[in-house]
Design brief:
heterodimer, A: abc type-2 transporter like fold, 4 strands, 66% helix, B: alpha/beta, Rossmann fold, Alpha-Beta Plaits, 3 domains, six-stranded mixed sheet, four-stranded antiparallel sheet, 11 helices, elongated
Chain lengths: 382, 309
């Protein structure tokens, strides 16, 4: 019998890393879940999630049938926000159409629309709106109001000029939209979707991986070895950091190709942010696994973490729109910070000077979660 | 003889349940120590504490002079544990399983050492077979291989032959003896008493978390053991003649069998003389030596009797 050789931390780390890589690569279902599923979901969500409001189905009620009312309806429908789905004979019929879901908006002209306008008495146009989707309603209402106020202003100027008077100076705001001049949804949403998919996939993988080993009893055979818990956890997480970086690279590639997402900043900075983000998501998974006795519990724990984290991240709804007491909670949410890094780097070309806070917060959250997971993992041994 | 594993006043509680209750025990270098006990006696809990899988509620355990909690890295290097349950990670073959385990111990498994382990466990031909595709016996041997990759000073075998066929059991026993000859200290937990009787140099009997006895196997057998002589009578008798009662015989099986128990070293002469004097016709004679099982049953039932008294 030979004397025991002093264990080499490098050999131990390499053994854990190699094992995790081999078992992940050999498990086709896990590879699918880790790489292919996020790609498919990003593409599908990228096309599906669109906050642009256009082609709102609209019916027109025009009992006047004058050149003026027809021209107003034609020009209002021309910008594409509203889409004519037909005509109705009365406001009641149009309202019934909205109730039945055949239209979301109705433009109701008066019987004497043209005569009222020409006589200078003033003209009213009723707009009926389906308020089920507040965002769509606001945009539709805004488009109609803007059209008629511009029309009213033009008519007033023409009248003044016709009477020889000088119309007052015009006040016209000129918006210049930076970074996303076309106001396309995809460049904003796809980085957010990537952040969301990454948290779901990595949290579940790490939570269930360790729970599975505990359930199968193979973890016990590792715990009788002299490997330090922190080394074991680092070795187990490292392959998923590599896979996570690959997935992010793939998602950015697909996003650039399919959704014209710009890459204005440094990819190195984005990858640094990704590593810090993965530290938090994998750490959360580990923490969940330390409080779970089996895979089922780990799975439920994964849901308990990821769903609130996604909802409170600002990806779906603006953080400023949340109640005041809920907003501080988002400060602890890694998705919030990573989405800011992603959008900052890709869309705005933000650099380290702009994103140091987000990176620092992710680092602090990541280290705290990993430390808590390691401590709990060690305590489980007692 | 120096002590490799020292257990001092070790207790493990789970709430109100006391799984291990104030155990003191020293395992000597180079011996095969048999830890016997019924299911749930605390054997696996005790071994798990030595291996570092559980922490004692109180007391201290040291391996080669190192504390198993504070200096776990030193003690785990010295220990190989063959667990009771057979579990393997999927997706790995026999060679990968052993190399991975060596890696966890921080050592690279040299080719000659790998071949030596596989050869000794008769697994050379299965080197590239997925561990989950092995037969039950082969899996058990692979678990032993995993526990040996780092050449431990002490090998713990927790119920190593549970569910293993007789032939494999014999071959495992002979391998355990070979390991001992090479200087490995072996701690064996089993509830197969035949196994402990066959292999162990010393025996510890544990029941309900308490160590009832620790003794050399032979001393234990001779102290608690006896020779039993059973005489089947050609014709049954109603009562035992007084001279036979005087030497300690008793009448069994409805008057057709005379049973006599003698301590190891005692002679049967006085009994046989008394039988001849009484004129009893003996049809058959049977002698039996007390087994470890008899001793074990006696110790455990005495302990339980005292506890309920």
């Amino acid at each position: 019998m030979t004397a025991p050789v002093r264990p080499s931390a490098r050999v131990q780390l390499a053994a854990v890393f190699r094992k995790e890589v081999q078992q992940t690569v050999r498990d086709r279902r896990i590879m699918f879940m880790l790489v292919v599923a996020p790609l498919i979901q990003t593409v599908v969500f990228g096309f599906a999630v669109d906050f642009e409001v256009d082609r709102v189905p609209t019916v027109v009620v025009d009992p006047d049938r004058s050149a003026t009312s027809r021209e107003d309806a034609r020009r209002l429908l021309a910008d594409g926000t509203l889409l004519s789905t037909g005509e109705e004979i009365s406001a009641e019929a149009a309202s019934a159409g909205i109730d039945a879901g055949r239209a979301s908006a109705a433009l109701v002209f008066e019987r004497r629309a043209e005569a009222d306008r020409l006589s200078g008495r003033g003209q009213e146009v009723q707009v009926l709106l389906d308020g089920t989707d507040p965002n769509r309603t606001t945009v539709t209402s805004g488009a109609v109001s803007r059209f008629f106020s511009e029309l009213g202003e033009r008519l007033a100027r023409e009248r003044l000029e016709a009477s020889g008077q000088t119309p007052p100076a015009q006040l016209r705001p000129i918006p210049r939209v930076a970074f996303n001049p076309g106001l396309a949804t995809a460049p904003y949403m796809v980085p957010g979707i990537a952040a969301m998919l990454l948290v779901i996939v990595t949290t579940f993988t790490s939570a269930m991986g360790l729970a599975r080993e505990r359930e199968m009893g193979t973890l016990e055979q590792v715990l009788v070895t002299p490997i330090r818990p922190v080394l074991l956890l680092v070795g187990k997480m490292a392959p998923f950091v590599v896979i996570g970086l690959l997935v992010v690279a793939l998602l950015i590639g697909v996003g650039t190709w399919l959704f014209a997402i710009p890459i204005r900043g440094s990819l190195g900075l984005l990858f640094l942010g990704t590593v810090l983000y993965l530290l938090t998501t994998l750490g959360a998974g580990l923490l969940i696994s330390t409080v779970s006795a089996n895979q089922q519990q780990a799975f439920l724990g994964g849901f308990l973490f990821t769903i609130p984290a996604v909802l409170l991240s600002g990806l779906m709804t603006p953080i400023l729109a949340m109640p005041g007491w809920l907003r501080p909670l988002t400060l602890l949410n890694p998705i919030r910070w990573y989405a800011e890094i992603m959008r900052g780097v890709l869309l705005r070309g933000a650099g380290l000077a702009d994103l140091w806070l987000q990176l620092a917060v992710l680092l602090v959250i990541g280290v705290a979660i990993m430390a808590a997971a390691t401590l709990r993992f060690r305590r489980r041994l007692g | 003889m120096d002590t490799v594993v020292a257990i001092r006043g070790v207790t493990k509680r789970y709430g109100p349940l006391v799984a291990v209750d104030g155990i003191d025990l020293g395992i000597r270098r180079g011996e095969i120590f048999g830890l016997l006990g019924p299911n749930g006696a605390g054997k696996t809990t005790l071994i798990s504490m030595i291996a570092g899988l559980l922490r004692p509620t109180s007391g201290e355990i040291s391996v080669l002079g190192h504390d198993v909690v504070r200096e776990y890295r030193e003690t785990r290097r010295a220990i190989g544990l063959v667990p009771q349950e057979i579990n393997f990670d999927p997706f790995f073959n026999v060679e990968e399983t052993l190399r991975m385990q060596a890696g966890y111990f921080g050592v690279r498994l040299a080719e000659e050492r790998l071949v030596e382990i596989l050869g000794a466990l008769d697994l050379l031909s299965k080197r590239t077979t997925n561990s989950r595709a092995l037969s039950g016996g082969m899996k058990r041997r692979l678990l032993i291989g995993k526990a040996l990759v780092h050449d431990p000073a002490v090998l713990f075998l927790d119920e190593p032959t549970a569910g293993v066929d007789v032939e494999l059991r014999r071959s495992l026993w002979s391998y355990v003896r070979r390991l001992r000859e090479r200087g490995t200290t072996i701690v064996l937990t089993t509830h197969y008493l035949e196994e402990a009787e066959e292999l162990a140099d010393r025996i510890g009997v544990i029941d309900r978390g308490r160590l009832l006895v620790v003794e050399d196997k032979d001393a234990l057998l001779s102290r608690h053991g006896a020779k039993v002589l059973r005489l089947s009578l050609a014709r049954p008798i109603a009562s035992l003649p007084a001279p036979l009662v005087a030497v300690g015989a008793r009448l069994d099986a409805g008057g057709s069998v005379v049973t006599f128990e003698a301590s190891t070293g005692d002679a049967f002469g006085p009994l046989l003389a008394a039988v001849a004097d009484a004129g009893l016709a003996v049809g058959d004679v049977e002698t039996r030596r007390t087994t470890l099982e008899d001793v074990f049953v006696r110790l455990v039932s005495r302990d339980r009797g005292e506890a309920t008294a």
